[in-house]
Write a structure and sequence with these properties.
The complex is a heterodimer of chains A (115) and B (239).
Chain A: H1 2-21, H2 28-42, H3 49-60, H4 62-65, H5 67-71, H6 77-82, H7 84-113
Chain B: H1 4-13, H2 15-35, H3 44-59, H4 63-75, H5 77-83, H6 85-90, H7 92-97, H8 99-123, H9 128-134, H10 141-150, H11 155-179, H12 185-207, H13 209-238
The chains are: A mainly alpha (115), B mainly alpha (239).
């Protein structure tokens, strides 16, 4: 478990350094994900057991990791009270419209290109 | 015997209480979601946030004091983002064949998601910094906060909006996709990952491994596309 976590942290660290050094607009963890992905593909796709264990353990509880930032909503109750109409509409209608458009487009393209 | 006020001061100062409360709220939220038989509307992230936000307001605890402890959980978002490479590599053979279709639909969907949020905010004459905070709504929290900062939004308002969008997408997205006749697990994963980032992906992973891999792919691609394109587009239209 520690070995797997260390691998993940190393990838993130390299990602953060690259993002700052090259002033990339992409955050370090996303670059770290791309790096780990390339390394795993070069190894044939399957992650070593320790890494797979840590990764699956973290991803099984991915929702938990959003909770502390989500509680930050308490700081914005005044803004939410004032601009609640555009905010809730953009969040609800905007998100659902995006899901609908992406899903329909993806299904149509997948049927045509890769049935 | 120490009096209760002193114990309260200790608890409010040390990270132990906030960290424990976060984990307890998450376990209770998961139990509630299980009781609802994992119905998509019974989203554990939503439950846990409501429990904790309600608790903070009732106990009059400052959010910053709470975050002192909760940051240890928050920190794990970074390694968890890196960890998404593991299921993606595992599923790569299947993902590879669909890559052109996936990339095209994620970019179109991602731009559409940002444009829809901005258009609705403009239609309602929301404050400019609220509009800018809505634009990067559909990408994962750290990317969205960075982009919001660049285009004049409020990063922490963006974080709250991003999480609300993720909860909405994870809760209502599956029913909408079924209604629209999107039955392909790959397309369902792409749609949820594009619009509802990590919270949608967390849901997708628990439902279907193929949908989970495509959702993780869509989330990463949209984060990349938004981080690169949105500041440029913003300057073009509002600069």
């Amino acid at each position: 478990m520690i070995a797997g976590l260390t691998t993940l942290l190393c990838c993130q660290l390299i990602g953060e350094i690259l993002a700052r050094w090259l002033s990339l607009p992409v955050p370090g963890p996303v670059i770290g994900m791309a790096l780990l992905f390339i390394v795993l593909l070069l190894r044939g796709g399957e992650a070593p057991r320790a890494l797979a264990q840590s990764a699956d353990g973290l991803l099984a509880n991915l929702g938990l990791l959003f909770v502390p930032a989500g509680v930050g909503v308490v700081l914005y109750l005044p803004v939410l009270a004032k601009d609640w109409a555009p905010l809730s509409l953009a969040i609800l209608a905007g998100t659902l419209a995006a899901i609908g458009v992406t899903g329909l487009l993806a299904q149509a393209l997948l049927r045509r290109l890769d049935p | 015997m120490t009096n209760l006020a002193e114990i309260w001061v200790y608890l409010a100062r040390e990270p132990l209480a906030a960290l424990t409360a976060t984990l307890l709220a998450w376990l209770a939220a998961q139990r509630l979601a299980r009781a609802a038989r994992f119905h998509p509307m019974a989203n554990p992230v939503l439950f846990a946030v409501v429990f904790l936000a309600g608790g903070l307001l009732l106990a009059r605890v400052d959010y910053r004091a709470y975050f002192e402890g909760a940051q240890f959980v928050h920190f794990l978002l970074g390694p968890a983002t890196v960890a998404l490479a593991v299921p993606l590599a595992r599923q790569w053979r299947q993902v590879k064949r669909s890559a052109p279709a996936a990339i095209a639909s994620v970019i179109v969907g991602g731009v559409f998601a940002a444009a829809a949020g901005v258009a609705l905010a403009l239609a309602f004459a929301a404050a400019p910094e609220v509009t800018a905070s809505l634009a990067p709504r559909s990408v994962t929290t750290p990317v969205a906060m960075g982009v919001a900062e660049r285009i004049g939004g409020l990063p922490s308002l963006t974080a709250a909006i991003v999480i609300c969008s993720g909860i909405v997408g994870a809760a209502l997205g599956p029913a909408l996709l079924t209604l629209l006749g999107v039955t392909d697990w790959r397309a369902r994963g792409l749609a949820i990952g594009t619009a509802a980032h990590g919270i949608g992906t967390a849901r997708a992973i628990s439902v279907n491994e193929v949908a989970g891999a495509f959702s993780g792919l869509a989330m990463g691609l949209n984060a990349l596309a938004t981080a690169l394109l949105l500041p440029l587009l913003w300057q073009l239209f509002f600069g």
